[in-house]
Amino acid sequence: MKRLFFLIIVILLILSGCSSLPKKGRPLEDFQFTDQYGQSLGLEDLKGNVWVADFVFTNCTTVCPPMTANMTELQQMVEKQGLDNVHFVSFSVDPEVDSPKALKKYGEAFGANFSTWHFLTGYEQEVIEDYAYKNFKEWVKKPDNNDQVIHGVSFYLINKNGEVITQYPGNEDVPFKQIVKDIKSASKQ
């Protein structure tokens, strides 16, 4: 009896350590923003694709450079795995400064592959602050008289239906292998 109880406990512990992504997540509201080429990109354009999103700005002096470098590394890992239909979306949290041209230059500096990575702008500051909070539970605030925007540092995994299904740290201790594993899982759903 003790052996059976021990075996059940071990099996439960093993199973609890296995992560499974939810099939349904928090649905995103539609958007229509402008990418680094000055072209329109919206939620409908990304449907049917798994994607990873974050919030950055080009003149950030703290968390954005490591986040963008980490997103580049993630993009390269995904490409090496041969995963098709995986996109990356970086929403600018400083749209008054971050023109499409500025975002393109910023992405190039980090080696972004623009065929699947979209840097978005083309909205008012209040729009991105509202969109980030309502859809990602991400707080974004541009203080008066300061060029540094306050924002979170998460990467968000979005499923093919445009739903946020999980998030990860994006600036340090990024769980790259887990994110790739979750992308593979979400791609099969």
Structure description:
With 189 residues, the chain is of the alpha/beta class. 38% of the residues lie in helices and 20% in strands. The chain has 6 helices and 8 strands, in the order αβββαβαβαβαββα. The protein has helices at residues 2-17, 43-46, 64-80, 100-109, 125-136, 176-188, and strands spanning 26-27, 32-34, 40-42, 50-56, 86-92, 117-120, 154-158, 163-169. The strands form 2 sheets. The protein has a 6-stranded mixed β-sheet with strand order 1-8-7-4-5-6, with helices on both faces. α3 packs across α6. The longest helix is centred in the middle third of the chain and has 17 residues, at 64-80. It is globular.
Structural class: alpha/beta
Mean pLDDT across every amino acid position: 90
Beta-sheet strand percentage? 15-25%
User: Which descriptor suits the 3D outline?
Assistant: globular
Could you tell me the number of beta strands?
8
* Secondary-structure element pattern, one letter each: HEEEHEHEHEHEEH
Helix content: 25-40%
- Cα distance spanning the termini: 40 Å
